[in-house]
From TrEMBL, chains A, B:
Residues annotated as binding Fe cation: E189, H303, H321, H323
Superkingdom in the source lineage: Eukaryota
Residue numbers annotated as active site: H173 (tele-ump-histidine intermediate)
Cofactor names: Zn(2+); Fe cation
Record keywords: Carbohydrate metabolism, Galactose metabolism, Iron, Metal-binding, Nucleotidyltransferase, Transferase, Zinc
Species per Swiss-Prot/TrEMBL record: Dacryopinax primogenitus (strain DJM 731) (Brown rot fungus)
Keyword Nucleotidyltransferase: yes
Domain Galactose-1-phosphate uridyl transferase N-terminal: residue ranges: 8-183
Protein name (Swiss-Prot/TrEMBL): Galactose-1-phosphate uridylyltransferase
InterPro entries for this protein: GalP_UDPtransf1, GalP_UDPtransf1_His-AS, GalP_Utransf_C, GalP_Utransf_N, HIT-like_sf
Binding site for Zn(2+): C56, C59, H120, H171
Catalytic activity: alpha-D-galactose 1-phosphate + UDP-alpha-D-glucose = alpha-D-glucose 1-phosphate + UDP-alpha-D-galactose
């Protein structure tokens, strides 16, 4: 009682950080990381996958399901998922609620699979920038096409990579799920971006870009601040910054977003912006692989404006960004589990975002496999 | 365009369900489950764990960490975690925010480990009701004790069970993390329970119990409705109901709560209510183990009123309930991963809550190991 409280040290004292995008807290326990980083890395794993796997349902020319054969595609290739979680309309009307607390909302949409490259043994980290750019162009095409489908309100581009994430096929691919409602997480983000855009701009002005009609944009503001602060930045590439967010839940979580202007969707990218985004993805995924000398597992998602394109609050307030949520903690096999306290109470991390960003800044961008014989 | 929209069928049409406790949606894709349940079960796994493991840091008489030895305890035993995520005070004052978007909140608290039983090879499903009741009594004791610690606002009781959940020690135990802020998830639940308690009561009256001062309680109302509807109920035990919530995210997610009166914490249980709760836990965990003939993995958490006990809105609106979130989907080894679309957009399930509850109702309450030689 008589002792003075200590002065707060973010690398020492347990604390919570606030995520203004989701209005959620994450618990940070940095004192558990006080041991110095031991540089513990797995021995590099040689890439043992074949370039072509006759049993892979994504390799060119193979049968992807009963009666459907993939063409001999030579670059990205997209097809509608044969077992989609969402179906095209017509949409049945919502049934009456059996109780006011039991609400149902019918949904329509569709699910696409985007194969990144014909080579079975590649990942984004092993593609050239030009090849990644073809993936970005394909994401954009599907975003526009699905966004014009009747009733579709949101097009969610994502990639789930790695056996540790339950992804059973290593062939490089992502998915696009399109839906007649804005899904939970982008919906909360958009609501908070809209709220921020309607609030008074920072005073004095921060020098950050502004959104449509000069409105404040939380992510323009945030990216601008982080670029200046530097301690959570992993890399910068032209107008793009990859950073470990202040409120990151996953050990090496990264957000990749533009800093120089308000961009609401993939469709709004200039050719130069698209190329530099592709370079940023290449550099980031190489760093990820080099972190534990393994093909790094993650879930990646693109958040952007709802569809169809219209001049509403959400469309204006949306700020294009990519999330990378990787579960790996200390090596290729040590995984962070979101269980127990995290499922029941609050997300928690030991390693601080600043420590994670520093580790990632120190890594090479030459892929570890390119250094092996 | 000319075809009439079909009539909504919850076991046929993709839809979203609303969770009023968290104000979140979950996407349900029931058409992917149209194949009949194949009764696929793993061959029963004989229990190969020893009753005592000399290397276990939780077995009686063993060393739990450098310099700390466990006594020869004969029933439940609690000790403070040697590597806690939360530390006792004094709490440093919050630092100034480097930017209005970057908010830090220092926290204090403590982390306890509650060993359920001396036997290394037991789980809640293998304990007698009397032994489970000792665990419930111990949870209550720690809830009261930690709730009196200076600055503690919430006491989170939970169990993380199973190697598939990252729990490295099978010795039956749970944890209690106490914190100077109400953690994210119970905080959102409490906010919505308070809102509901301040809204007009159902008209006409539903016959459900009411909260303190006759205020409406969302969970009294919900449990009362589900008890009557029956299709999501797994079991009833005296005043307790175990049900798969309308908005369940995990395949066999269960909420266990009282239906006969508004109870805000473990401390408010009568001896009879505590015994019937213990019986309900016993019956539920036996059914879980019988589902795939394995020691079923889950995270379990107790949600109740904040501490210290005071007559505020949150304390009054809290309704005691236990969540069981199990990741197993079709067998002891097929796990549901919360990745990709779920991390980036919205929780998703194929099996409907009604189908899951029906499966669980059909199971025996005689533990599969008691049927083996
Ligand atoms: Zn986002
Ligand atoms: Zn709860």
């Amino acid at each position: 009682m008589a002792t003075d409280p200590p002065v707060f040290d973010p690398s020492e004292h347990p604390h919570r950080r606030y995520n203004p995008l989701l209005r959620e807290y994450v618990l940070v326990s940095p004192h558990r990381m006080k041991r110095p980083w031991l540089g513990q890395v797995e021995p590099p794993a040689a890439d043992t996958l074949p370039q072509y796997d006759p049993k892979c349902y994504l390799c060119p020319g193979n049968s992807r399901s009963e009666g459907a054969v993939l063409p001999q595609y030579t670059e990205t290739y997209t097809f509608a998922n044969d077992y989609p979680a969402l179906l095209a309309g017509p949409l049945p009307p919502a049934p009456p609620a059996p109780h006011p607390l039991l609400i149902t909302e019918p949904v329509l949409g569709g699910c696409d699979v985007v194969i990144f490259h014909p080579r079975h043994d590649y990942t984004l980290a092993r593609l050239t920038v030009g090849e990644i750019e073809k993936v970005v162009v394909e994401w954009t095409r599907v975003f526009v096409q699905r966004g014009m489908q009747e009733g579709v309100k949101y097009v969610q581009v994502f990639e789930n990579k790695g056996a540790i994430m339950g992804c059973s096929n290593p062939h490089p691919h992502g998915q696009v799920w399109s839906m007649s409602s804005i899904p939970q997480i982008p919906s909360v983000e958009l609501r908070n971006l809209v709220k921020y855009s309607l609030s008074p701009p920072p005073d004095p002005p921060s020098g950050a870009p502004r959104g449509d009609k000069g409105k404040p944009c939380m992510l323009c503001e945030y990216a601008h601040f982080e670029k200046g602060a530097g301690e959570r930045v992993v890399l910068e590439e032209g107008p793009w910054v990859a950073l470990v967010p202040w409120w990151a839940v996953w050990p090496f979580e990264v957000m990749l977003l533009p800093t120089h202007r308000h961009i609401s969707s993939l469709l709004d990218l200039t050719p130069d912006e698209r190329t530099s985004l592709s370079t940023a993805i290449s550099r980031l995924t190489k760093r990820y692989d080099n972190l534990f000398s393994c093909s790094f597992a993650y879930s990646m998602g693109v958040h952007q404006r709802p569809t169809p394109m219209q001049l509403d609050d959400e469309g204006e307030a949306a700020h294009l960004h990519l999330h990378f949520d990787p579960p790996l903690l200390r090596s290729a096999t040590v995984k962070k589990f979101l269980v127990g306290f995290e499922l029941m109470a609050e997300a928690q991390r030991d390693l601080t975002p600043e420590q994670a960003a520093k580790r990632m800044r120190e890594l090479s961008e030459v892929h570890y496999l390119d250094l092996m014989d």
